[in-house]
Design goal:
111 residues; mainly alpha; two-stranded parallel ribbon; 4 helices; 4% strand; elongated
Length: 111
């Protein structure tokens, strides 16, 4: 008695090729991120010398987000540059880090 593989297994070769093609493409993000050591006594964690530009030019979406006061204060203290661009750039960078490490970040409210 021979065991027959399920029909979906016949397509695994195609799936593997698609996965490799899409998983290892260079990131085509909006920003260029450069990570470096913070100088001794350095004030900022993020220095943003970028902009998103006009909505029509980049098809960007305007979003309203709620920022808790403690995080707003931290951003004001630790980010040099436009706050809205910093939030988008940090989100893109964090997603790239998660992609590269093949990890998942789960965020929940503190009790």
């Amino acid at each position: 008695m021979t065991r027959k593989n399920p029909a979906w297994m016949a397509d695994l070769g195609k799936l593997q090729a698609v996965a490799k093609e899409n998983s290892f493409k260079p990131h085509k993000g909006f920003f260029s991120h450069t990570l470096s050591e913070r100088a001794s006594g350095g004030k900022y964690h993020a220095i943003v010398n970028a902009s998103i530009g006009r909505v029509e030019k980049h098809d960007a979406k305007t979003r309203l987000v709620r920022v808790p006061p403690a995080i707003e204060a931290r951003i004001a203290k630790e980010v040099s540059g436009p706050v809205s661009v910093a939030l988008v750039a940090l989100a893109e960078w964090a997603l790239d880090q998660l992609d590269d490490s093949r990890r998942v970040l789960t965020v929940e409210n503190k009790e």
